[in-house]
Amino acid sequence: MEQIVRIESLSNLGYGIARADGQVIFVEGACPGDFVKIKITRRNKSYCYAKVLEILEPSPNRVKPFCAVQKVCGACQLQFIDYDYQLELKRGIVEDAVRKIGGLDIKIHNTIPSPQIKEYRHKIQYPVAQTKVSKRFLAGYYKSGTHEIVNIKHCPIQPEICDEIIDFVREKAPEFKISAYDEKAHTGLLRHVIIRNSAASGKNLVVLVVNSDKIPPEVQRFAEALYEAFEDVSGVCVNFNTKKTNVIQGAVSVCSAGDDFIEEKILGKTFIIGANTFFQVNPKSAENIFRYVKDYIAANFEKPVILDAYAGITAFGISLSDVCGQVVSVEENTDSCKLARKSLILNNINNVEINNTDAGEFLAREKRKFDAIILDPPRKGCTKEALDNALRLTKSKIIYVSCNPATLARDLKYLTEKGAVVESIQPFDMFCHTYHIENVAIIDRNQNHIF
Asked: Do 108 and 166 sit in the same domain of this protein?
């Protein structure tokens, strides 16, 4: 069914929103202000999905994408929208979530832009496949809404060296008798290629995810060849993932050639990043976030005791260490804690305590009080028990860092129902040209509320 509609706004998943015949229509690839002919692709009782057939009148904020495969690649959903307008739309996504889900009427600050909007992405994860007849290797992001790989030769949002490494994999893997993984049949060897690129040094750590529980000889030889081929590849690791799952990496990685880490620099501190540890994909935007939190701590506290929960490689704790009396870091991933301890030694930091345990369990049993608590949970947010315990343990502030406006809004609603007050929410553009948006919320614990 074809219709002509005006796009009114943008959804939290990057769809243009139109209305017709009492229904909300989510339109893929549409910009607010567009006047478009659409085709309905899926219909529910109160809403439906559609794709654009023809742009009759483009929005003044529509631009030509700088990537040749933007329309088919699922990675940069908003690249056809002017970057400044992307920032405003993302602020609106946060405002909408906080109002509708959180029930809060809070002014959302203007989104702080990424210092780079090209070559900003310093971690890539490409699935691989082979064509049925020629067995040619394919590697790239999935086409939107599918598991069909878009074979990407050049991606302008990542450093060029990543394209060169992926080309090497495509061309040379068959020569080493390496097969690509078939997710339907659960056969084949190479599942994903992951590259972590250091913005500071330009060095790269390559991770080959294999459908095996050990390193096959052909993969070992291939890893060594890849390492030798690139001066800026610091090491090649092999990760084991034999499960029928959409989870990209397994729990264990083994270094096959070179080093099993790269180093990144943020706010003058050096961080060691490994194959199985989390670090933000956009280091320059991450630096903006760390600086924002550090400046807030320095302006409002005198050598405070800070809790850094869901800490990863203790990026916040290490960044804040020189304005704090003590930092207590909590992270359940053992590899992250090991590398965090090495980073402490490398940076000559002696006021950070690292606890390798589940953050929720730590919060539940901890007795010490903290001047401020930093919560940086995964996309699913925090449990109610974790939020209760954060309120119990903080003397003053909770700094909640979130990559998911919906779960942030849900958790802010819970905290305010417990008597806390949200002082501010600052969005940061970590993922340029996508609908994703990072936020830092400053929350004041109500001193009169007794836990």
From this structure: no
